Each structure stands twice: as structure tokens, then as C-alpha cells.
Amino acid sequence: MTIGLAVIGSFPWAQVPGYIAAQLVGAFLGAALVWLSYLPHWAATEDKESKLGIFATVPAIRHLPGNILAEVIGTAVLVFGVLAIGANAEGLTKPGEIDLSVAFQQRAAAAPGSSAGLGHRPVAGRTDRLRHQSARDLGPRFAHALLPISGKGDSDWGYSWVPIVAPIFGGALGAVLFRATGI
Questions:
Q1: How confident is the model at residue 133 (pLDDT cuts 50, 70, 90)?
Q2: Which CATH number characterizes residue 8's domain?
């Protein structure tokens, strides 16, 4: 979303690195809380892939073209939906301002769920156990690698680029398509 907004000129590029860093830190800390929440379960669970899947994207079937396409399409639909719903709510204020009223918050909160449903299930299904957000995969993947998780196995760094790069392209595509439609 951050890079997609920057691509269409709705977010300053100078702020992108700081936002991404904050997203990564937040995702890592959230994953650490999940680790703490399930602390007794790590030793009782033998399935290494399931443990990794709690933290990071693990493809149900490793087919890179399909996994990449699923992430790109799913993220594009998600970003397009969030921007379309947000633009509708933004009409409540003067042009260029974002209204943080209850109406805007409700519409914006509904967007990820509805567009994720559109982009995730019919388009992507379970090809990639989608994240649609690069920091959502990378931060928790670092947590998986660094935390003392009993019997955790490999963090699958060889696949880690897919849920990082594909959502960046998908987010940019969704934002460009949103801008092109004139919604």
C-alpha cells in the first residue's frame, strides 16, 4: 500500500523508508507476541512447516509463477479496493484532505476484508497462503529465524523474496489501476 500510494503520487517517497521500517518492526513485535502466546505449543507441535506458516508465507504448492501471480493479483485487488473505498469516504471532506470521521474509518476498515476476499479466495485460493504485504512476511520471518522456537526448522529464506517482491508490484498495479479508472 505504501509503495503503491507513492507510485501514484499520493504519498511522499521520502517517507517510504521510515514507514517500511516501522511496518517491519511492528510485524516483528507482533510475531514475537504470537510466539509468546503459543509458547507451550511449540514443543508439542512437530510439524516444522506449520510452525513456519504461523510466521511467514509457505506455499501450499511451490510453483513460483503461480505463487507470484497469486500475490500480485491478490495485492492489486486489495489495494484497489482500499483506495476505492477510501476515495468514496474522502469525498466527505475538502479535496486533498482525509476525513478520519467514523464513516471513513468504517469504510476503510471494511475494505481489506472485502477486497482480500475478492483477491484471495477466487483468484489465489491456497496457492501461496497469501500475506499481500511485504512487511507482514519479512518481519515475522525474521522473528521465526531469531526466536527460540522448539523444533522450528528452516525459515525458508529461498522463498522469502516472493512475498516481498510480488506484493510490491501488485500494490503498485492496484494503485495505478485505481488512478487510471478515475474513481
A1: confident
A2: 1.20.1080.10
